[in-house]
Design goal:
Elements lengths: L9 H17 L4 E6 L4 E6 L6 H21 L7 E5 L4 E7 L3 E7 L5 H32 L2 H7 L3 H7 L2
Antiparallel strand pairs: 1-2, 1-5, 3-4, 4-5
Amino acid sequence: MNGSDLIMYEEEFQRIDAELKKLHHQANAKVVFLVDKNGQLIASAGDTHDIDTTSLASLTAGNIAATGGIARLLGEKEFTILFHEGEKDNIHISLIGQRVILVVIFDSRSSLGLVRLRVKKVSEHLGQIFDEITQKVEKEKGEGRLDEALFAEISDEDIDNLFR
């Protein structure tokens, strides 16, 4: 998972999804996203109908990369939290375990303090989940079962749909 594509398992995905839904509710956010550092959307909670999620995920990853460059110029390893304030909406972006990016979009119904408090707690839980995923991947690599795991959930119907 370091710099490569993220391998996601159903059980861990369900736990991630539950954490995002909880954060969405507890922070009174409009939308919560989880994005990998390559700009791929992993999961979201909230109303995403009016948002181009693909562009938002990609731009967020670019924002983290650019901010990382600024941090290095200033002698910092990385800035792990970013905040942008707009007229109507605000965006809180945090890097979790050098692996994924958590994005919370909120408006005046919430506050930066509440969002930061809730993000801190959820970040710990998400970090644990991603640690477990890493351990599972390493174990399966060691047992030679990773290739089987990657294709185990793909059915013939999935393959047929892909080529339609």
